[in-house]
Amino acid sequence: MSEKLEVGSIVEGKVVRVKPFGAIVSLGKVQGLVHISQVANSFVQDINDHVKVDDVVKVKVLSIDEESNKIALSIKEALPKEERRPKGDKPFNKQPRRQNYHNNNNSEQGSSNPAQEYFRPHSSVNASSDFEDKMKEWMKQANDRQTSLNKRANKRSY
User: Fold this and answer.
1) Which of 68, 7, 62, 8 lies closest to 35 in space, CA to CA?
2) DSSP character for 41?
3) Which residues of the chain have pLDDT under 50?
4) What is the DSSP string of 64-107?
């Protein structure tokens, strides 16, 4: 394809077409695709709000597929590190931690979080006998359903 293009390099290109799924960028003799997810750091509803035909953009080469002659590009990866995350956005892994159920004083009184109440361990229940009871009940229900289906099938065959 192109000897001077390498994966990871940042190059300048010119937007030649804008499609709903991304932008086609000319890199001289070859063209590559900037997928809509690689246009900006935030969610892109309409790609036309971010790039236009004839815009000159810096892109990072994400991959080069020689067999299919496809080049994957990214505008957001070409940005300096401090600009990659939109201002005001919190990093994804900085969410507040959930309270551990062992330390939850409200678990005995009822919780405002239904999932917390549902997943609260029940110390008085023996896990293996509880499982066996549930399995027996499930097997009984499955057998009842199968019997009912068999009865219906036999009635239709007459």
Assistant:
1) 62
2) S
3) 1-2, 100-108
4) EETTTTEEEEESGGGS-HHHHSPTTPPPTT-PPPPPPGGG-TTT
